[in-house]
């Protein structure tokens, strides 16, 4: 099989990987939120090992078990009068909290989604405010970690 020939790079084609810096995040009814970083879009499967007693093979067989989804970490700049994440996590009380759908889209040059990750029943697990350092000139970044119950991936 012949190797594919890359295009000119003037526009996205099938031979150039998508850049990872152009993305959008929707949480519930809030759309296109300005996050600096998204990580943790992991899917993992438990492995079930089994060997029946009269098997002539002296090792176990491996079967797929339950699916597990990693926690999603979102990082964004701290802005004046913006406490949405702290307000959301502070509402958690005795298993009564708002679960939302989170949609993360990887975009092409024209802002069109090419890959979409949809999180089901997401809720905040941890909110970490920025660290503060009088010797630093960096932007203040806060972190929110979301737990969820399912991940659906779609390619455009």
UniProtKB/TrEMBL annotation:
In the record, what lineage is assigned to the organism producing the protein? Bacteria, Pseudomonadati, Bacteroidota, Cytophagia, Cytophagales
**What species does this protein belong to?**
Mongoliibacter ruber
What GO MF annotations does this protein's record show? structural molecule activity
Instruction: Write down what this protein is called.
Output: Phage tail-like protein
Q: Where is the signal peptide?
A: none
Q: InterPro entries of this UniProt entry?
A: CHP02241 (IPR011747), Phage_T4_Gp19 (IPR010667)
